[in-house]
Amino acid sequence: MGISGLLPALKSIQVTRHISEYSGKTVAVDAYVWLHRGVYSCATELATGKITNKYVDYAMHRVRMLQHHKITPYVVFDGGPLPAKKGTESDRKSKRDENLARGNAFMAQGKMSQARECFIKCIDVSPEMAYQFIKARFFHALRAESVPYVVAPYEADAQLAYLEQAGFVDAILTEDSDLLVFGCQTVLFKFDVVAATVVSISRKDFGSVAASSGDANGISLIGWSDVQFRAMTILSGCDYLPSIPGIGLKTACNLLKKWRTADAVIRAIGIEGKKSVPVGYLKQFKLAEKCFLHQRVYCPRQEKLVYLSEVGSDWNNEFDAYVGG
């Protein structure tokens, strides 16, 4: 989940803050992050078909923690599968199935510790779990306290980004670095309920990110545009497009500094011939970029589906099908 190596590369602009600093604010919450974390406490029960509400309790505790500090949570759930992530989701399902089989084998041998590790890896937050989370407890709790929530038409990431962009929320609480690629301004990570702290990254600080000589994985964003930042992350590999083999975050950063645009970088790699550019990669890059820019989201104000940002005159049915028509 997210862009590999991005958060460590932005270490210099990460600020630990007490959540009370956001008192009086509305913070959008990626509900599935809490659900995924919650299943850790009941992975064996879920993998073996036993009924449990532990993951609901885990998420509700965090909602109440925000409310205690006078923060309004605006909870966002994933919706339907995005066509652009068909390959990614297929790979993830295959890995989950493999770990489930291994876990059952360990359990049959009485190796409960090893079985639990496998079960943790195989658990997915299914639509049924999301339904239970909303209907059984969370839905009624939010309505009773007038806390807003929304089920995204597709991915929560794009919906979270839209809520901030449209002024519904002041910040976003997640563990997914993709939110930075979507253009979000204030993203909060690593919510610690014991210390009541979060780690904040502000987009306005991107221009101060500079690679030091002793940092092997460092990147520099000085003088960079949003277009270049987005291109760097897509080139390094994202959920919508695997990277060109051998191209990680730092390499993508260096190539863009030299060639300026993604088109020029891809052409240069092909001409040099040292790395193999997959057939159709440039077209897939453009489609991935459209997912970050124009994915379909729900507008609570207009009560209808809209694009994350307005599309151009070149928009066509292929693009619509890819980002959610």
Report on the structure:
- By secondary structure, the chain is an alpha/beta fold.
- It has 2 domains: about 5-205, 5'-nuclease (Rossmann fold, 3-Layer(aba) Sandwich); about 210-290, 5' to 3' exonuclease, C-terminal subdomain (DNA polymerase, domain 1, Orthogonal Bundle), CATH 1.10.150.
- About 45% of the residues lie in helices and about 15% in strands.
- The protein has 14 helices and 9 strands.
- It has helices at about 5-10, 30-40, 45, 55-70, 85-110, 110-120, 125-145, 155-165, 180, 225-235, 250-260, 260-270, 280-295, 315-325, and strands at about 15-20, 25-30, 70-75, 150, 170-175, 185-190, 195-200, 295-300, 305.
- The strands form 2 sheets. A 7-stranded mixed β-sheet has the order 1-7-6-5-2-3-4, sandwiched between helices.
- α5 runs antiparallel to α6 and α11 (about 250-260) packs across α12 (about 260-270).
- The chain is globular, with a radius of gyration of 21 Å.
- The two termini are about 25 Å apart.
- The mean pLDDT is about 85.
